[in-house]
Amino acid sequence: MYRAGAELKEAAGVVVVLHGRGGSAREILSLADALSDDRRLAWLAPQAEGSTWYPLSFLAPREENEPKLSLALATVQSVVEMAEAAGIGRERTVIGGFSQGACLSTEYVATHPARYAGLLAFTGGLIGPLGSKLGPLGSDLGKSGDLAGTPAFLGGGDPDPHVPWSRVQESADILTAMGARVTLRRYPGRPHTVSPDELVSARALLAEAFPV
């Protein structure tokens, strides 16, 4: 676990950031300064074994990404529980990531519905094959829980070599059906990276979530 910012016991809120395939917790934490100047926030970044949260594409059948996918979701859960043990509930916790980390963030929030301080998905979406029902065992996520107004930002390039825009859109629709307040941004021709415009949107979400 890598950390930055305020100590948990003194923090106004927590931002959990998840790295992409082949990335690192230290690398994703470098986004902290670009996303917020708020020194009251604690930043937590778990590290995936082998720098990969699950072995195959997020569009592969879920069972082919097991048991790593379930272990990855359990890792996020353990970080959320760490914050809760320090007195910081989900309503003061933002979960986000890039690429594979964005997919894992979106999947976690949708399958563990609650009122979160926010979701930041930089090029990612819900996990499962195109054209399939999404969620564990093909559950209908749009009817499976209440995100109670959780603000969410989903951004992606179109086309993207790893994350089709159709899945980003589908994920935004499902999160909206679950009660999230979703901001969706499509970036034609943008490479597989986090754009300056996405950082601006993310900063706005964090500023709203943690007003001074």
Task: Describe the protein's architecture and organization.
With 212 residues, the chain is an alpha/beta fold. The chain has one domain: Rossmann fold, CATH 3.40.50. Helices cover 31% and strands 20% of the residues. The chain has a seven-stranded mixed sheet with strand order 1-3-2-4-5-6-7, sandwiched between helices. Helix 4 links the parallel strand 4 and strand 5. Helix 3 packs across helix 4.
Q: Could you name the CATH topology?
A: Rossmann fold
The coarse silhouette is: globular
Question: Which CATH architecture is right?
Answer: 3-Layer(aba) Sandwich
Order of strands in the sheet with most strands: 1-3-2-4-5-6-7
CATH H-level superfamily title: Alpha/Beta hydrolase fold, catalytic domain
Element string (H = helix, E = strand): EEHHEHEHEEHEH
Task: Report the biggest beta sheet as strand number plus sense, adding barrel if it closes.
Answer: 7 strands, mixed
Q: Provide the residue-averaged pLDDT.
A: 95
CATH class: Alpha Beta
Q: Work out the count of structural domains.
A: 1
Cα-atom Rg, whole angstroms? 15 Å
Percent of residues in helices: 25-40%
Binned strand content: 15-25%
Structural class: alpha/beta
End-to-end separation in angstroms reads: 27 Å
Individual helix count = 6
Number of DSSP-assigned strands: 7
